[in-house]
Amino acid sequence: MFETFPNAPIIEALIDIRTQLRQSVTLADLEALHDDIKSQYPEKQKRMLWQGLFQLEGEKQPSATTQSKVMGYLFKSADALQITQFRLDGFSFSRLRPYTEWEKVYAEARRLWKIYCARTKPARVTRLATRYINSIEISSKQFDYDDYLTAAPKVPPGIPQLVEHFFTRLVVPFRDHEATAIIMQTPSDKQDPIKTAIILDIDVFKDVSLAPDDPKIDEIFAILREIKNKAFFSSITERTMELFR
């Protein structure tokens, strides 16, 4: 068992299910689902997909353009702490800070997933993922990253031992479970003059081919959660854990 913290650093916990929908499912079908959840999720927004395009014409400088299209709808709870997405390529559920607990988050995601399935009747589930974005907040601007991260960035010897910015991204296969974890570390964009916030972003996923009501979905999410916890606790030190207790 992994330790739970009264001051968990989680700023967003996300559960995502990618699907293959029938061609007959439309954006109007997804929008109509709002009627089933409007009392808990009153705010509706379009979920956009942005794509960049590069054009080459003879000897001219290449030009870049962007195109967008609606992929589905995003629905927010009245307190803006819970967000669900019903998309043409799948479903997701997010819980923002303050985090509650996995059992409650997964139960709500499962409830909303059933509502999504009732209307869209997905042909297959193609990918399962859970992503946890953590903010490690240190009440100092001068400290040794090794005191807080087990895989901290290293400054080469012979140059000033100062770091203004860094970004690390590890892609780690868990072959026993045919799953993959992506672990990212970087300073938060939201900094203040006294504190330092480090983002520890852990995304664990598995490609699958399952029926939408297959009980293996619950089993796989339990495994993905275990991998996520292992990646998190392997990335931080005991001193970091004290920040959350």
Structure in words:
The protein is α+β, with helices and mostly antiparallel strands and 245 residues long. It folds into two domains: 1-13 and 130-245, no CATH class; 22-121, no CATH class. It is 23% helix and 40% strand. The chain has helices at residues 27-32, 34-37, 102-120, 216-235, 238-244; strands at 10-20, 43-55, 63-76, 82-87, 90-96, 124-138, 168-174, 179-187, 196-210. The longest helix has 20 residues, at 216-235. The chain starts with 9 loop residues before the first strand and ends with a helix.
Give the SSE layout.
Layout: E1 10-20, H1 27-32, H2 34-37, E2 43-55, E3 63-76, E4 82-87, E5 90-96, H3 102-120, E6 124-138, E7 168-174, E8 179-187, E9 196-210, H4 216-235, H5 238-244
Antiparallel strand pairs: 1-5, 1-6, 2-3, 3-4, 4-5, 6-9, 7-8, 8-9
Summarize the structure.
With 245 residues, this protein is an alpha+beta fold.
Mean pLDDT: 93
Q: Count structural domains.
A: 2
Kindly state the percentage of residues in helix: 10-25%
Distance between the termini: 16 Å
Q: Flag low-confidence runs.
A: none
* Largest beta-sheet details: 9 strands, antiparallel
Order of SSEs, N→C? EHHEEEEHEEEEHH
Number of separate helices:
5
Describe the oligomeric state of these chains in a short phrase.
single chain
Reading side by side through the largest sheet, how are the strands ordered? 2-3-4-5-1-6-9-8-7
Round the Cα radius of gyration to an integer and report it: 21 Å
Strand tally = 9
Shape: globular
Strand content: 35-45%
Helical/strand content category = alpha+beta
